[in-house]
Amino acid sequence: GPRILNIQCPSSLVQGSNLTLYCNATGNPSPNITWIWEETGEVLSSSEELTFSAFNRSQTGNYKCLAWNGIGKSSTRTCRLDVPDEPLVLNLECPASIIEGHNATLHCNATGNPPPNINWIRKDTGDVLGTNEQQLTLLDVHRSQAGTYQCFAWTGISNSSINLPSGTRMTPDLKDTVVLAGGSLFLNCTSDANPTVSVFQLVFDSALIATSSSGMFSVTVKKTGMYTCIPVNEVGSGDSATVKVTVLDAPGFPIFVNNTVDTITIRWSPIYLQSATYTVNIRPGEETTWMNATCKQTIWNNKCTVTGTVAEVFGLEEDSAYHFRVYANYRGVRSDASLPSGAFRTAGDV
């Protein structure tokens, strides 16, 4: 009977490529060659060559070369044609919440042809944490491990996010705030810690001043400093949140410097904040109502607001008495008024 001498099959395939299968046989008489697709039994060619144009995944299967010359048994050899499937991550399983100090296990299921290898990568660092494993176990999890972990199956990537306790937030959400001396400051501390926070500690300049199970604090501010909120649970203390509080004091009371028939120049002691500005009020004679003064150094329209600690107030009546007071302004907050001055007089006409 006939004998197949050689069959040529491609070692790898790319979808959409052209390819040709070859099959050579010998016998006496010379055998006929037939190519059969075993998936359907369809005869595709009656020659030594079987040609495909733009081979696609739907044509995957076994292709049999059959040689027969009418004598004895036929001879067959088979080519297996496969288009590799791109890896695909089917699903990820990760815990909805993780308790710090406990273990966490992630699962990744992927498919592909050939079956893909799976690597676990921590996205923010690029560290490879596991290879050829569908399961990744993190032992004794710490908040420093919070982040995104990738299940990498060749070119198929899916992300799994692990949300560990990430710290504490404080309301108002400010790094620096300004309050009046003796004023009240309300702070609300929250944390996403797991286990939940049992108590919040409020620290002022390294000294513990209050605790709260709710995280709410009302503080009477007496001096400038740093307020820090620290969450505590059964694992220990967590990341803190800090706000700097600046106390805005009133400036010193106005002092007489000199006068003319329609001006009075005053000065006062500054507060310790160098970028503060000052606004001058005036009250004529025996009147009780304070009003905005008008001065030559003003930086705002209709108000005597200056950057220094001296103001020349003008537009006054000759030989008349006036009282003065001063406010400090800092980051949109106005201080309490200074103590009022005594009665300062403009000069009389000589």
From TrEMBL:
Keywords: Disulfide bond, Repeat. InterPro entries: FN3_dom, FN3_sf, Ig-like_dom, Ig-like_dom_sf, Ig-like_fold, Ig_sub, Ig_sub2. The keyword Repressor does not apply. Residues 2-82, 87-163, 165-246 form the Ig-like domain. GO terms for biological process: cell-cell adhesion. CDD domains: FN3. Pfam families: fn3 (PF00041), Ig_2 (PF13895), Ig_3 (PF13927). The keyword Ion transport does not apply. This is Fibronectin type-III domain-containing protein. It comes from the Eukaryota. Residues 250-349 form the Fibronectin type-III domain. The lineage of its organism: Eukaryota, Metazoa, Cnidaria, Anthozoa, Hexacorallia. SUPFAM superfamilies: Fibronectin type III, Immunoglobulin.
